[in-house]
Structures are given as structure tokens and as C-alpha cells.
Amino acid sequence: MKPADSKGHLSHSRRKFLNSSALLAAGILLPKQKGWASALAAFAKSPRYKVAVVDLMILKRQKLGAFQLTKDIGADGVEVDMGGLGNRETFDNQLAKPEIREQFLAKTKELNLEICSLAMTGFFAQSFAKRDGVDRMVQDCIDTIKAMNVKTAFLPLGVNSDLTKNPELRPVVVERLKLIAPKAEAAGVIIGIETSLNATDEAKLLDEVGSPAIQSYFNFANALDNGRDVCEELKILGKKRICQIHCTNTDGVWLQNDTKVDLKKIKKTLDKMKWSGWLVIERSRDAKDPRNVKWNFSANAAYVKSIFQS
What we know:
This protein is of the alpha/beta class. The chain is 44% helix and 14% strand. Strands 1-2-3-4-5-6-7-8 form an 8-stranded parallel beta barrel, surrounded by 5 helices. The protein is globular.
């Protein structure tokens, strides 16, 4: 590290170190309690990695009680579902009602939590490629996340639009993503897609769509279930293509007991990529008691935080 650049100015790292030292020194010079509290408050920053859980997976789909449970679990935020889809014209979205949105936002403020994303999980079962009215469904999600000041939506391509098993659907998937991309751009939000593709092919798909509003919502389990290296997949996709990460494996054991998931190595990879954002715990429930929500998700949240927020 050089103390100054060629013009004699302090480097960014050097300035940051000196500013931090000054803050801490100020705390020492002030009365003990107020001094340290002031210094630490001034020096505190939002963590580079935040940890969330999925309201659907903690059995509180679009329920206000998901927030208190999230707080009890020890996570920083929640991925909130848009509601069921089935044969409806759009999602069964209670958040379309202003009074419900206000209740959710008030609860996040009360508990010091965040809504990291809204999830269109209805597309796990429904076909994004073939279903009529997809443009309205996605627009309803965009309208909701904008109204709630959330920046990211989760769009899984699911079983019926699995591009590995149904490569013939790729052109229509790209076409539909290109149609919704300008709407997301105009709203200032990102739609994170989850596919079964390997990172190379997913990167090509995203590049063909060609919009910063359509990115990858990366899932460890997709890579692991197909025998792919998580860290290599992350590097291939790169920082600018990944909006959020589902940082769990399929169910069986907790993350701390999963020999397939090396979180320390993954953190080093993400650090080197200079990526930051939400790590969203979806599964990795212990097979002995998969419906014991607090037991499973508290263990995984604590472990993820011990690696990423230490």
C-alpha cells in the first residue's frame, strides 16, 4: 500500500485508515460511555453482507408474523412472497392493498428489519415461457416493490420453463425478459432470475437480454445438485450479473454440517469479486425435523453470519 499517489495526495485506503483512527481517538478523549458510543456510532457501517430468510420457507407466506419470527431467528431481513398464482390472472397479492403494505413497512421499522426482495414463487410451478398474462403478473410485482421501496424481485423459471430440460423455450424466455426489462428499468428495480443453466450459459442468456435490470439470483443448490463448483460459477457470472444469492443447499443437513458447501471459500471468492448484498437462506433444513422452522433457520442464520459478518 502506497501512502500517497504520484501527486502527493493520500490514497483512499490511507485516508480511510486515518479517518477511522481519528474517530476512535475522539471516543477515547470523550467521557467513557458517551465517547465510545459516539465513536462507534460514527464508525458503524451497514455490513457488506446481509442475511435474510424466505417467508414462504419459514411457513409465513405474506404474513405479518414473518417479521417477528425473522427477528427471533436472528436474520437481518425477509424475502416476502407475492402470493399464490395458480389459475388466477395475477398473484394473490395482499400487498397490493395500501393498508397492508403500511402494516408490513411499519413492522420492519419497529423490528429494525428489511425486506430484501419480493418473490414471484408462483412461477416455480407455472410456466414463465408459456403462461398467458405474464406481463401483467410481473408488472404487478414491479408496482409492489416500487411502492414498498424494495429494489429486487425474484423470478424463478421453475420446472416448466427449465431451460436445461427444455432448451427450445430459450427464445421465448429471452423475448419475454426483453419485454419486461424496460419496465423494470423505468421503475429502478432489478428482476433476479433463477435458472438451471450453468454459469456460462446463464451469462450468455443475460447478455442476450442485455439489460442491467435483469440479473442472476444465484442459488448454491442449482450448482451443487448438478456437480458444479459454486465458486467457479460465481466468478464466471461476475459481480455485475448477480443481484442476490440463495446461499443454501437442498435439505438434509444444516450448512455448518454440509461438506459440499465451503462458506469460507465462497466468502473469499465474493470478497475478491468485490460483490456485496443479500445472502438469503432458503433451505438446508435438517432432515430429522425439517418443519422445525426456528431450530433450522436460526442455526443456518447464525452460521452464515459467523462467516460473512465476523
